[in-house]
């Protein structure tokens, strides 16, 4: 630091506290915060569209895997069996 320069003094004003504000100041600040919160935002940009062929392929894989690895519940199995019987045409099994 040079001899001719005086050190810079920091002028710090004490921050105003909310309980020291008048009604008008408080209303102005709260209105600004409300406007900021509810302002319209731009929608997020989608990265890139999904190829419909790829989407169909993966959905098909998902359905096939569900049928393959997830066993049917007792209720679903009984409904499937009764539908198969009705479809085949014979309602009674005779030994």
Fill in the keyword field for this structure.
mainly alpha; 0% strand; 95 residues
Question: Helices, strands, pairings?
Answer:
Elements: H1 23-38, H2 52-69, H3 74-88
Characterise this structure.
- This protein is mainly alpha-helical.
- The chain has a domain at 52-87.
- Helices cover 52% and strands 0% of the residues.
- It contains three helices and no strands.
- The protein has helices spanning 23-38, 52-69, 74-88.
- The longest helix has 18 residues, at 52-69.
- The termini are far apart.
- The mean pLDDT is 80.
- Principal-axis shape: elongated
Mean pLDDT: 80
Binned, the helix content reads 40-55%
What string, H for helix and E for strand, traces the elements in order?
A: HHH
Beta-strand residue fraction: under 5%
Largest sheet: none
> Which stretches are low in confidence, meaning pLDDT under 50 for 5 or more residues running?
none
Terminal Cα span: 111 Å
Structural class: mainly alpha
Alpha carbon gyration radius: 37 Å
Our count of helices gives 3
Number of strands: 0
Put the structure in a nutshell.
This protein is mainly alpha-helical.
């Amino acid at each position: 630091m040079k001899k001719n320069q005086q050190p810079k003094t920091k002028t710090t004003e004490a921050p105003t506290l909310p309980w020291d504000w008048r009604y008008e100041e408080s209303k102005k600040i709260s209105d600004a915060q409300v406007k900021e919160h509810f302002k319209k935002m731009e929608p997020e940009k989608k990265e890139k569209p999904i190829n419909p062929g790829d989407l169909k392929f993966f959905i098909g894989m998902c359905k096939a895997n569900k049928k393959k690895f997830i066993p049917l519940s007792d209720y679903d199995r009984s409904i499937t069996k009764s539908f198969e019987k009705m479809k085949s045409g014979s309602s009674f099994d005779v030994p």
